[in-house]
Amino acid sequence: MQSDPTGSGSGGPDPVATPAGSGPPASGGHDTHAHTVAADDLARARKQLLDGGSRTRRLDAPALRQALVDLHEFWLTTKGAEVGITPDSGFAIVAVGGLGRRELLPYSDLDLVLLHDDMDPGVVAQVADQLWYPLWDAHIKLDHSVRTVPQALQVAASDLTAMMGLLEARHIAGDIELTNLLIGGIRRQWRTGIRSRFDELVELTTARWARSGEIAHRAEPDVKNGRGGLRDVHLLDALAIAQLTDVSVGLGPDVPGGGLASAHDRLLDVRTELHRVARRARDQLRAQDADEIGAALRIGDRFDLARMLSDSARTIGYSVDVGLRTAANGLPRRGLSRLRRMPVRRPLDEGVVEHGGEVVLARDAKPTKDPGLIMRVAAAAAQTGMPISASTLGRLSDSAPELREPWPKEALADLLVLLGSGPRTAAVVEALDRTGLWGRLLPEWGAVRDLPPRDAVHTWTVDRHLVETAVQASAFTTRVTRPDLLVLGALLHDIGKGRGGDHSVVGAELVNQIGNRLGLWPSDVALLSAVVRHHLLLPHTATRRDLDDPATVQMVADALGHDPVLLELLYTLAEADSLATGPGVWGDWKASLIGELVRRCRLVMAGEPLPKPDPIDPEHATLAEGGGVHVMLTPAEGPHTFRVTVIAPDVPGLLSDAAGVLALHSLRVLSASVGSHAGAAVNEFTVSPRFGAPPQAGLLRQELIRATAGELDLLAMLEEKERVAKEEQALELGVAGVPVQYAQAPPRLIWFETAVDGQVIVELRTEDRLGLLCRLAAALEQHGVDVQWAKVATLGKSVVDAFCLNLGDADSRVTREDLESAILAVAPAPPPAKKDGENGGTAGSG
To answer: Which residue ranges are recorded for the region named Uridylyltransferase (predicted)?
Structure first.
């Protein structure tokens, strides 16, 4: 706050206090000697505290702050009494800023307000001079103002920065009733006016973050103003005073790192030592001071200090996100908004609903008996882009049991959905990690959490880099036959860091135990371990070895066991890893070298095997021979998965009708095997209800018969169901219009030739959508294509669907182009290409 011209001047009263109640004398001179003596005492005491000389032990950071608070409070109360600032004088000394919060740092400004009860301006000027001059003489930076209570309230009403400062006001000396009038008035004004000032508060906060950056991922962070810094804690305090949120916002002392209060204390300690090292006020931690500050705080070297700062800043950053969101939802309603209906609870998954723009638990959810609930909540948040409510995370943290080993298939599928959700993944993982849930799912994560990179080219901490790599990989899932192993490999490729030794070797061993815990097939565990073991092989070889030497290519092929699937995964992971490392790491030169190495390795390796159909169960073959329409629904391996078997006369449209009926009943197809026997179709679907129990098999059979008879327009019904779902989400999020859902990765179609003339296999790699299998089958049937067999796999958000088509004499380039256009038309579309000069958002920001 700036000096009030009505409250300071060159003259001042006699330093001798007048009798209580009579007020200071009306005139007097500036007694330089008296001021100098007081200034010398204060300056000498401050110097002893900061220097820690032979007679004064060096205080640790919290003790030093407390000692500085005590020293300045003692001096101010003593000096106040000396100049007549007594309980009945009509004057009060009020501290704001660091002294007001009892967090006074060695070289911070002293923020003071001299309150008066509309006293004579001359008297006020004399008292102010006798208070301010000794502080200036002691070379203390002083931020001061002189106000009446109405003046202070008027300033706060027009200046949000002044309001935020006065919310921290604390009485030091003089008339406490005057101080209480100020504090009570400021807090009432803040609570009643928060609705009109909230947008400005958010705007100022985001502008500050843009200027100062994110503490957790900066080499030289601003520990006061950066995102996750001390100013953000003050923001939470202000929201709590407005009664819009709890100051702890769900992060108590039991979460990793000790929660919000512990994070706040650690940042205060760092800033205290930063002042002491620099011997002046400083907010930015310079690299050359990090080792000294780490040693002073008994943390370790600069890397240990950076890890602690990342943990603290991310805890505070998460708390601010929750606090601002909670506050926005809690703003008092006025006018017509008071008449708006309360948000409804819309089901998202079993035990998971959407409420007020957040993902929350259903009323009948039982976290203590549902180990997979954590992953379903996370997957729902990633798919919808909505945050998980803090109360839900707290409830899950307190009561959700550990997932059994191996994980149920549904839990693994939800993990893949989370990892395949693009930029929305990072915020969900961060929320789970800050509340201790992510570490329970992946205990190995603790070694890389907040681990700073040793290479300056890295933008992120190691754990955030892993998540960012998964974000990048989600855009490449259609390049590979195993998108599930791609995103898992991206998440785990550096999991061996922070443990000593070659992180690729250590990580490969860890991935063996992680893969077994996740419930992967043994062959998939081995493949995933190989991805982690060799994730640096292609970039290192391509940039350091002679690619024209046949021995180089042979060495890579031999190291990969001549496995083209492994080569494909490593090629894609190399790009995702580079893009997630930092700007400029992936470029045309590196891409061309790795691409050429991969091309030559493919020539050395054998080609990929063709997709092939699953065998038909003998019992199903017997039913097919008997004729009629049969629909059977039986439990599958997991508690929320079921197997639906459809056996019916093989007529055109049966596959799309069966898939459409399942989609209309909110049964998500996880895998499918489509075949025929004795003139009948034998189609088997593994499905998962999005919520609740599946319908009876008899109802599915009845609607299938109606669909095949042309009584149900399944495609139109699916379009309406999808439209309603989007509109409901738009209403919950407050979005104007229906949000367009773009795919993370563009769809890709691959043609395989077979040994039979006119018969081809087409494989679609794309992201899932409501009723996708129904739409695909309908597109093929509309072109008169005979589907010999099909094999469908849903891997998280991605699908890999293979269809064996009998084109007969109609097989031609034009036919294939028409089919390709029809198939790609029903797949989720990629986002439109950016125009020149158009910037996109940062992947995984928040």
So the answer is: 1-347
